[in-house]
Amino acid sequence: MRIIRDYQFVERHDRGASAAIGNFDGVHLGHRAVIDMARQAVPGAPLGVLTFEPHPREYFAPDAPPFRLMSRSARATRLEKLGVERLYEINFNAALAGLSPEAFAQRVIHDGLGLAHVVVGADFCFGKGRAGTAEDLARFGAQMGFGVTIAPLLEKGAATVSSTAIRQALSDGRPRDAAAMLGHWHRIEGPVIGGEQRGRELGYPTANMSIAGLHPPAFGVYAVLVDVLTGPHKGSYHGAASLGVRPMFDGEVPNIETFLFDFSGDLYGATLSVALVDYLRPEAKFDSLQALIDQMDADCARARDLLAAV
What we know:
Blueprint: E1 2-4, E2 18-21, H1 29-41, E3 47-53, H2 56-60, H3 72-81, E4 86-91, H4 94-97, H5 101-112, E5 117-121, E6 125-126, E7 132-133, H6 134-144, E8 147-151, E9 155-156, E10 159-160, H7 163-171, H8 175-182, E11 186-191, H9 198-201, E12 207-210, E13 220-228, E14 235-244, E15 255-260, E16 271-282, H10 289-307
Parallel strand pairs: 1-4, 2-3, 2-5, 3-4, 5-8
Antiparallel strand pairs: 6-7, 9-10, 11-16, 12-15, 13-14, 13-16, 14-15
Helix pairs in contact: 5-6, 7-8
């Protein structure tokens, strides 16, 4: 997959794609439906995704609480797995934000990227002040010479599949409900960073990862599936993870600490992808370290049983 970040400098072989447009946070089932429509729209055309970095919401409200379901690198990994050949990850800045809907269609979609066809969701808005609608884009496409497909919103049961609904499920400690809308387990991906090594002292050495910039799921203990993506221990493992601020040790900055079952080795610097499968319990402060160890023993036993059926 090729990643293009400047719409004003696009190689000829990167033009002519059929592309889905959106933020694709989480790459959920609704996003995948839009991407599949783009895949089928122009036979033989490269399959593309047009998205923005930083997320426009981050650009306009930089001090708002973290909301992203995945980092840009995790999103790119997921899109590549879906067969996307051109990721147009365009820099969202003041100049882009100031384009009128018509100017965006002309300068970015038509002149800049040279897209043959675009697919957007029915609730798509674009241009300065989000003034443009999906119907406006279809009208501009007819005038400028690129095709437009408007995809209906995807519903699952009585609810519309959306990043907002997925965030709520994760906040409520319902990772399986989030996975049903995502079409895959919700994963936290990143490098293993140094910790205080308390887990090792307790007999539970953990791989610590930051969740900075990501929407925080419910704090507590989870049964997890772990993919070690880099380093000598690459592979897939089962485990248990504690996500939160570590109240037993007066922590302040949220992170995720993952214990891999039946594993021995050094993971510092390796990139991990940790999938939240089941929420076991909230965070708690125990009366003693032994009480904490006893609870960790019980957590891991329960996680092993749950993951055996996955």
